Amino acid sequence: MTNFKRTTVTSALPYANGPVHIGHLAGVYVPADIYVRYLRLKGEEVLFVGGSDEHGVPITIKAKKEGVTPQDIVDRYHGIIKKSFEDFGISFDIYSRTTSKTHKELASEIFKTINDKDGFVIQTSEQYYDETAQQFLADRYITGKCPHCGNENAYGDQCEACGTSLNPTDLINPKSAISGSAPVMRETKHWYLPLDQHEAWLRQWILEDHKEWKPNVYGQCKSWLDMGLQPRAVSRDLDWGIPVPVEGAEGKVLYVWFDAPIGYISNTKELLPDSWEKWWKDPETRLLHFIGKDNIVFHCIVFPAMLKAEGSYILPDNVPANEFLNLEGDKISTSRNWAVWLHEYLEEFPGKQDVLRYVLTANAPETKDNDFTWKDFQARNNNELVAIFGNFINRALVLTQKYYDGKVPALGQLTDYDKQTLDEFVNVKADVEKLLNNFRFRDAQKEAMNLARIGNKYLADTEPWKVAKTDMDRVSTIMHLSLQIAANLAIAFEPFLPFTSEKLRTMLNLSTFDWKELGRIDLLKAGDQLGTPELLFEKIEDETIAAQVQKLFDTKKANEAAAYKPNDVKENVAFDDFMKMDIRVATVLDCQKVPKADKLLQFKLDDGMGERTILSGIAASYPNPEELIGTQVCFIANFEPRKLRGVMSEGMILSAENADGKLVLIRPSVKVTNGVEVK
Fold first, then answer.
1. Which domain holds residue 66?
2. Distance, CA of 26 to CA of 322 (rounded, Å)
3. Which of 205, 194, 154, 195 is closest to 175 using CA atoms?
4. Where residue 568 falls among pLDDT bands split at 50, 70, 90?
5. Residue among 24, 89, 562 at smallest CA distance from 334
6. Is 162 assigned a ligand-binding role in the annotation?
7. How far apart are CA 565 and CA 371, in angstroms?
8. SS3 content of the chain, % helix, strand, coil (to 5)
9. Rounded Cα–Cα distance for residues 176 and 144 (Å)
């Protein structure tokens, strides 16, 4: 294994056309932050680079939709995203953006260097062109009917209804999202990175030299390599992006997947204009990319091929990509608003950043897609953070305050049980370290929590509040050891729960700490004055969770309503046939549920000619049928009477089925005379 002098850590650049959600946090940013904080605790030289990805078609689409400029869009969301990361303690050394002057200059420079070395090939191909708007259309600017599921609004790159990846030419009846006209095919030229020419060294570098990569990363790379790599376009016919900096490329910009990863480098240069190269060009620097699984190919194949073609950059040593996090059993979707947005979470759960960090790490999709549920969130908070970690710390500090005026008591004679307890956490440093070094953050946090379990059990078993009646010397030893475990927890949880760790260190007056001290039992000295005890965590009640679940349920209902498509119109009928139907208005005299028939309501109507009874299957939509008394309804008067549940029903009440399945009675908008006909 190479002995590196320093580590450059990057995290995927979030797309600046919307805020960030828990899927982003779980898949990329919390794991990266845990690792960086761990390295810093060890005293290692590390640089943590992030930023917003601000070019590409989705941003221009959103800008057109809102009637603003693309720059307006990215300015808005870059600010929201950056603040969300700051609020959750994601400890970037720099979080910048791909619209910066430094980035534009460096991306152009890298393109020109590769171009001067004949590292690109120029190919002409046919692409959809909008003759009305007079521009070539990116895949997202083409819509049409999906050939797989029939969705009429599929995009040229993907159908969001069935999830199938598409090419624009796959669409049935394609049209331009800009003008609505049918596009035509027209020739255009683009610059391509010839990945096929890089395949041999990529195969050796990944499949032979990096077998230690996570199976999901290694497997996806192998699949792509085994299929054979093809040239990939690095330019696009757009007006939003970095202009392709060579002659003959007027009207073209760098494709977002060429320009975006260069953002890691340009952001480093922006932060360290005089020393940035050592973080990207020195072979003694270790480069790590934290990403989601949808970015594996770009970070393991495309970006390394770009860097190799340029010739002066190091390649990533590891790419610890995660799978996806789902939400309440459904795929997180920005377009469907099916997400827990970080800025909204902070408004609804103020001060509980670490609770979400803890739950997302405990549920991290490290080896397979995983699911976030609000019930699990509540259970982990109440049963683990409150009942184990928080309970132990609170008892240890409150009892010390009570018996010793908040000063660390002396360590006396150790019993066999004391020694046994100390033996249980003597290996915590090595165990957590091994897991973190292998990017197993979920298990590492679990191991750190075991230290809290040990402390909680120790206090529960030794019962110092009882021993205090007869043996204060023994209590002194119990509380001393408990406080040493608490100090260890402050170090062990610094990478995972930074806000909690800081709060705990303040309560313990633990000003200096580092990773090498983890596992020691002399972190606090007898006589040290402790701070005021405070609760680290608080219980989350059922009503709070029910409100979050209802919020998602309401979102799903709104999505279903927005996506509602009426059924096809039935076959035509003759006008004379329709005229045979006698539709009239009546006032409801009485309405009640039919016994032992969950769906049926029994209406007694004044139809202007007397009274009639009609049974209708709308009980589920009207749980309080007595409220209908005195209102008017429309009904078909000349249906053949039918006996239902022993009651003769004389007609049919008219109702409409809403998109959510609820039945709504058809009524006149103003009161009319009973018995009048509906024409």
1. 8-119+194-322
2. 9
3. 154
4. confident
5. 24
6. yes
7. 30
8. 45, 20, 40
9. 9
d(CA 588, CA 103): 72
3-state secondary structure of 143: strand
**518 and 429 together in one domain:** yes
Rounded CA Rg of the chain = 33
317 and 446 assigned to the same domain: no
357 lies in some domain: no
**597 and 658 assigned to the same domain:** yes
Q: Two tokens at 501? A: 């760790």
334 is in an annotated binding site: yes
For 457-472, what is the mean pLDDT? 96
| Statement to judge: residues 579 and 491 lie in one domain | no
User: Quick check: 74 and 54 in contact, CB under 8 A?
Assistant: yes
Q: Do 607 and 477 have their domain in common?
A: no
Q: How many structural domains does the chain have? A: 4
User: What is the structure's pLDDT at 373?
Assistant: 97
Q: Quick check: helix, strand or coil at residue 185?
A: strand
pLDDT tier at 1, thresholds 50, 70, 90? low
User: Do 25 and 110 belong to one domain?
Assistant: yes
Q: Cα–Cα distance between 418 and 412 in angstroms, integer?
A: 11
Check the annotation: does 149 bind a ligand.
yes
Q: Which of 241, 269, 242 minimizes the C-alpha distance to 49?
A: 269
Phi, psi of 601 (to 5 degrees): -115, 145
- What is the side-by-side order of every strand in the sheet holding 330-331? 330-331, 325-327, 370-372
pLDDT digits 0-9 by tens, 502-552? 999 999 999 888 999 999 999 999 999 999 999 999 999 999 999 999 999
Q: Which two tokens stand for residue 662?
A: 């609820």
Task: Judge whether 439 and 31 are in contact, CB under 8 Å.
Answer: yes
Q: Contact at 8 Å (CB) between 332 and 338?
A: yes
Q: In the structure, how many helices (H) and strands (E) does the chain have? A: 23, 25
